[in-house]
Amino acid sequence: MAQTQPVSSWATDFDVLDREYVSSPFEIWDELRQKCPIAQTDRRGRNWLPTRYEDVTAIAHDIGHFSSLEVAVIPFEGEEPDEPVLPYGLPPISSDPPLHTWTRRLLLPWFSHRRVAGYEELTRNLCRRLIAGFADAGRADAAAGYAQQIPVRVIAHILGVPEDLSDTFTEWVRDVLEFADDAERRIHGMESLVNYFVAEVGRRKEEPGDDLISELLQVEMDGKPLEESIVMGAAALVLIAGIDTTWSAIGSSLWHLATHPDDRRRLIEDTEVWPLAIEELLRAYSPVTMARIVTKDVEFAGCPMKSGDRVLMNFPAANRDPEVFENADTVVIDRMHNRHVAFGSGIHRCAGSNLARMELRVALEEWLSAIPDFRLAEDAEVTWAGGQVRGPRQLPVVFP
Amino acid sequence: MKIRVDQDKCQGHARCYGLAPELFDIDDYGTSSVVGDGTVPPELEERALLAIANCPEYAIEEVD
Ligand code: HEM
User: Fold this and answer.
1) Does ipTM exceed 0.95?
2) Is the N or the C terminus of chain A less surrounded, counting Cβ atoms within 10 Å?
């Protein structure tokens, strides 16, 4: 991540790529919520940053003023091609109704409860295989060596693309999401992904399989097959939305458990607490911030938002709003009232949330059953990525 | 106790199903509905209240 200029005021000059914000944004949000609940900045265009639950969810529901045509937190500063390969971007995430409505319905059944249950065994075997690789060593990088390895392989299976390309996919997705302020890397990541899916779509037309890409190619709308750019965009979206996000949630949860032995013990001793614990970890370490573009001038909660401004959908800060969550900055592992919006709010609710939850649960179950006792290594550093997706990228842990 | 799901509000977070699978059904598109006519047996009332309190879209309500 590039070096950023020091922030002069979080209320008027915030920067989500600032190192302090990336590694620990919680106090910054607490201060903003009290003093200036919707912060503003002129860095990389004019941006607003709501920090209260009420405001974030209201904006998510107001699609008349706040469009999803641009959802990247860091605006793209390179040149846009005249004839893009993906004229609709990555539907449904980068679209508004009506395009959003029907493209979302194409994806949803792939990630229903029933389908997701069918991916559980594969996920569990994968986790076991990874753990077997380092269990005897007494130390591991729980982010790069574990969390990062899981979701990409499950998604590769769903898309019917080879698992041995996992590292390559991971690199492309990181270029797009984590190095978004580096135009060259971002273009490289996006072009590589698009070229890959153009070729895959070509291949599936010749030899269909029983994967998501092949099935989308067989869908007909009004008697005609879908435009190929819709299929490519949706397939690329599943990869982009499904891997960095989930591995960040797994990584942050393992960071929490490495530093909170009481919660670790509770999970090991009390299986009933798991459903609550998973939601609480998602709440407290929500990885994903999205963006919206203001389409009509509007005064929102006293802020004069102008057409073209960007609003950062700060789901992570909403989830720590003390108006909605008691002891919001504390992980209460058996929290009973938890209306969190880690998966968003309104019509764009994460289409992969059932899959993400399953992967997070299985990854933690398998880790804790093999490595019940672990802590951060003292001789190595934990590093975090942030911006669009926040989570640990290097998480060295040791265990007896 | 009787509950209902407002399907115009439901966005498929599936939190109700996670907390009380006996009381809710979820279709392939994520939309939730109550099992049967929404009548909650006394031993599940607490869980129904939890589902109401955890829905991020305020889509579940007690009807009587
Ligand atoms: C813990 C992991 C994850 C988190 C925190 C997360 C978070 C989110 C959020 C906040 C949104 C809303 C976007 C918006 O409002 O603009 C979203 C949308 C989406 N997510 Fe996830 N996600 C995760 C995992 C996944 C996985 C595993 C998939 C796999 C398919 C996925 C696929 C999608 C898709 C397709 C959308 C677009 C839905 C739409 O626009 O209608 N996500 N996600």
Assistant:
1) yes
2) C
